Each structure stands twice: as structure tokens, then as C-alpha cells.
Amino acid sequence: MIYKVFVLLRQLVLIFWGLFISSQAFALNNANAIFYPLPTQVKGTFIAAKKLFLGEQGGLWIHDVHGRVLFYDGQNVLPKSGSFLQTTAKQ
Length: 91
Hints:
Blueprint: H1 2-30, E1 36-39, E2 46-54, E3 60-64, E4 69-72, E5 77-78
Antiparallel strand pairs: 1-2, 2-3, 3-4, 4-5
């Protein structure tokens, strides 16, 4: 009898632990779906970034909601117009 109760409690703990871990993984997966407003030097304009990537030698690579790829060095957004890529990025 005590063994059956122990087995049942163990299974319940494992189920709740699995639900907790899976919910945390799901929350981390959706964290990249948030749109981040990134202000620039020009007042009143901003970049709605879909995804951000740290540059290996500093700076920030930006994939915006329009599919453009931009680079932000902390003061300037390059290129001034258009994108670094000739076609829009889908990912």
C-alpha cells in the first residue's frame, strides 16, 4: 500500500516537473517574437526590430519588421537607406 502511494506521488511530481520545464522552454522560444523599438539619432524615428544579433566585434545587427538587415554601432544605423542584403530576409 505504501509503495503504491509512493509510486503515485513520484509520478505526480514527475508530471508537474515536466510541465514546469516545458512551459519554461516554450516561454524562451517565444521570446524572439517580441518587436523591440530601437531609437536612432534622428528624433521621432525608430526601427521596429524583429530580431537582434550582437556583432562579433561590437555593434548590433538588426532584422526589422520589413525584412531589412541593418547595423547599429551605438550612434549610427547603416546603411542610411535600404538593407545590407539585396533581397529581404525571411528569417
